[in-house]
Amino acid sequence: MEGEKVSVEAGKPIVCKAAVAREAGEPLVIEEIMVAPPGHQEVRVRIICTTLCHSDVTFWKMKDYPAVFPRILGHEAIGVVESVGEDVDEVVEGDVVIPVFLPECGECRLQIKKE
């Protein structure tokens, strides 16, 4: 598209920092992680600010399924779209977004839209 911004990192893996829960109830560890470029219908978001909510803390303390470790907590966040994958037309690079804990589009492969 004409005038469309293209991130220097778009299409490439990036390294960033994350607070990683390695084991249930153990302190979070700040680590550098590799984040792949977005795939088909995926968006990569640069998180500006996040917090831990009750759901995060509950999963962090769980020792059994559905809690899986290691995991990155903090789904209540605000960020900026860094790059988009193929067939993404709802957001563009630079959009400010708020991730959600559960998808609600009704059209994702994990959801079946009932009409």
Please describe the structure with a list of short key phrases separated by commas or semicolons.
32% strand; 1 helix; 115 residues; mainly beta; Quinone Oxidoreductase, Chain A, domain 1; disordered C terminus
Q: What does this 3D model show about the protein?
A:
This protein has 115 residues and is mostly beta strands. It has one domain (14-97): Medium-chain alcohol dehydrogenases, catalytic domain (Quinone Oxidoreductase, Chain A, domain 1). It is 7% helix and 32% strand. It is built from 1 helix and 6 strands; from the N terminus they run βββαβββ. The chain has one helix at 54-61, and strands at residues 14-21, 29-35, 43-51, 71-72, 76-84, 96-97. The chain has a 3-stranded antiparallel β-sheet with strand order 2-1-4, with no helix packed on it. Strands 3-5-6 form a 3-stranded antiparallel β-sheet, with no helix packed on it. A hairpin with a 7-residue loop joins strand 1 (14-21) and strand 2 (29-35). The longest helix is centred in the middle third of the chain and has 8 residues, at 54-61. The protein is elongated, with a radius of gyration of 16 Å. The model is unreliable at 109-115 (pLDDT under 50). GO terms for molecular function: S-(hydroxymethyl)glutathione dehydrogenase [NAD(P)+] activity; zinc ion binding. Homodimer. This is Alcohol dehydrogenase-like N-terminal domain-containing protein.
Describe the secondary-structure layout.
Elements: E1 14-21, E2 29-35, E3 43-51, H1 54-61, E4 71-72, E5 76-84, E6 96-97
Antiparallel strand pairs: 1-2, 1-4, 3-5, 5-6
